[in-house]
Each structure stands twice: as structure tokens, then as C-alpha cells.
Amino acid sequence: MGVVGGNRGGCVVGAERVLPDKVRLSAVCDIDEAVLERWRRDQPDLKTYARYEDMLGSGEIDAVFVATPPALHAEQAVQALQAGLHVLSEVYAATTIEDCWRLIEAVRASGKTYMMAENYCYTRPNMMVLNMVRQGVLGEPTYAEGAYIHDCRSLMFDPDGSLNWRGRSRANPVQGNWYPTHSLGPVAQWLGIHRGDRMVSTATFVTRAEGGWRYVAEHMGSDHPLASPNRMPAGDSATTVITTRQGCVIVLRVDSASPRPHNMTHYVLQGTSGSYLSERWHGESPLVWIKDRSPEGEPQWQSLWELADDFEHPRWKAEGETAQAAGHGGGDYFVVADFIQAVLTGEPAPIDVYDAVAWSSIVPLSIESVSRGGEPVDVPLFRA
User: Fold this and answer.
1) Based on the domain organization, do 370 and 262 belong to the same domain?
2) Whole-structure pTM over 0.90, yes or no?
3) pLDDT in tens for each of the 384 residues of the chain?
């Protein structure tokens, strides 16, 4: 496997360490020589490339992990597919509807495996809830929430003081939901999106800009060129509402600029006979209520972990300890393992190109909705 984007691409190392018989990292590409030098120091046998096209044509790899900034993902994935390589892409898959369709066509034409690496789908609680949904424990799902609330303001700058891709997103005057798949991915799986249901319309609303420019003023001085809402105009919090063909409602929130503790995972699922509420901070237990298991009287929450013996996802029972060693709460392990399995068997990846573009389409659709004052817009039917 080759990696393009040597910083985030390092997550493959953890998966490689626990899957040595299935994956071998043999090449890394990055435009930053300092990043490549770090890789050469840590793994002297690794081939390194400054030009992506050179790595694609090297004959050293049969798959690519695309781990560059999001705006590059679609083009680099298409290039790899056209070169006859399998693709594992970081989130999100594309930034425009046109690129969503290009990606679908490239996958179809190449016959190669494509998977989006949405590791939040593989966390222990999210997979346990998925197992409960599939067993019908919560009844028929009707409503869900997903939120990625992570104060990333300290991550906006490169060491030389220039804005990186996170910082540039805060300086972007185009308003929308710029990072939806951590919130949407697990929820879409619970609701059976593309497995019986589909998203049909979406509307997005964005708060005013406060967090980014105030952080710059506080840490770099009020005279800094970016210490102004006019220079960092991206709204702090975006809320997206999605409706589905079967009458479900999904509410997403993404906020990477408000000052607060990290709330990396926030999910809610309501079914006709049960509900789920994820933990609000690190160390709190996720909660679940199941009608048939609740004591008589008022419904009462109980810890999700109290039901682990009955509803732990089989893969976490079998592979959880190994997965944890790979990083990102086990998600990186399952992502790489499922990608490799799909490549070896020729079966569709669990998060295939249709899932990838549907979840990622919220980015351009949210921009359109915000530009029209929060009006709903149709979600394209990517998978007929």
C-alpha cells in the first residue's frame, strides 16, 4: 500500500503493525520534504515520493490511502483508480456534486475497490448500537442526531505560522457544514441509508463567526491580520437537518471553533421501542433505554455497557483488543481490515463509493442551502 499525505497517513502504521500478514506499507508521497524525511528516518526501507504521479506509476503498490486535505481527495482517488489501484480515502470523499459523480464513474470504470475510511463507524459503542438496531432491539428507528464538536482552533496553523487546511476553512467566506461524515456515518448505518432507505432533502443553518478570530486575537495579538471576523468569517457551528424517504429525520452538528471541552462523539437514536444517548464527555457512560427491559413504572436509562454481554458487536468481542492497539479507538484497525477484505474477496466495501459520496454530498448541499437562507435542497440519488 502507498500513502499520499504523510501526516494523517501515519495511522496506517498502527493497522500495519497488528495486520502484518495482510498489509504492507511500501511507499509514501508528500510535498513536504520534512515529512518525507521523518518517514525515511522511522522506516528506512520505505520508498518516498514528492510527486503523486511518480508513486502511482512506480509499480511498488497495488492500493493507495488518500490522506491529504479533503479538497484533494476526489481528484487523487480518481487518479489512483485510473492507474488501476484500489483506493482507501480519508473523509470526506468529495467537495462538489460533480466530483461525487466523477468518483462513482471512476470506480465503475476501474472495477477496483473503493472505501471511505470513516473510522467513527467502528467505535465500540457505535458498532454495539448497530448490532442492537439489526436485532430490532430498539424497534424501528425514527430520529437520529450526530455531532462532531471539537475545538480545533489550536490546530489551525502550521509551525511556520501559515494557515493549514483547518485554518483555511475558518478563513473561507463560503458557509456550510464542512465536516459531516463523523456525525453522519454511524447514523446512516443505523437508519439503513442505501440499505432500504435514502436521504431525500437537507437544510443547513450556520451561526455567526466568533471562535476563530477571537482565538487569534487572544493568542497572537489583536493587531494580527486574522484577528477580525471579516478575515475569519466561517460560522462557528453548523446544523444540518436531513429527511429520509421513510420519514426519518437526522440532525447533524459540526463545531470546530467554539471554546469548550472536546465532545468528540455525540449521538442520539430514537426507535419505536427504545433509544440511545451517547456519552457527553470522556468517562461518562453511554445510555440506552429498551422498552422490554425497563423496570415497571417510569422509563429509566441504563448504561450501554450493562448490556454488553447480550449486544456487544461480534467483531468487537473477537477483535476489540487488537483493534484498540491500532489507534483511534479501534476504528483505524477495522477500516483497514475491511478494506483489505474487500480487495481480497472482490466484495463491496462496507463504506463503498455510494455511501462515501452520499455522506460527503452534505458539504456542497449545505453550502447551497445556506446560500439560499436555509432552504431545503434535494439529495441526489447516487445509487438507483
Assistant:
1) yes
2) yes
3) 999 999 988 878 877 777 888 888 999 999 999 999 999 999 999 999 999 999 999 999 999 999 999 999 999 999 999 999 999 999 999 999 999 999 999 999 999 999 999 999 999 999 999 999 999 999 999 999 999 999 999 999 988 889 998 899 899 999 999 999 999 999 999 999 999 999 999 999 999 999 999 999 999 999 999 999 999 999 999 999 999 999 999 999 999 999 998 877 899 999 999 999 999 888 899 999 999 887 777 889 999 999 999 999 999 999 999 998 887 788 999 999 999 999 999 999 999 999 999 999 999 999 999 999 999 999 999 987
Beta bridge partners of 141: 271
Closest CA to 76 of 169, 164, 5, 23: 5
CB 369 within 8 A of CB 105: no
Beta-bridge mates of residue 202: 242, 377
Shared domain check, 53 and 187: no
291 residue type, one letter: K
Residue 357 near residue 93 (C-beta atoms within 8 A): yes
In a domain, 85, yes or no: yes
Same domain, 27 and 132: no
Question: Is the domain of 161 the same as that of 181?
Answer: yes
Identity (one letter) of the amino acid at 358?
A
- In one letter, which amino acid is 248? C
CA distance 332 to 6: 16
Pair type for strands 2-4 and 377-378: unpaired
Does residue 347 lie in a domain region? no
* Integer Cα distance of 345 and 151 in angstroms: 40
Residues found in the chain: 384
* Shared-domain flag, residues 81 and 167: no
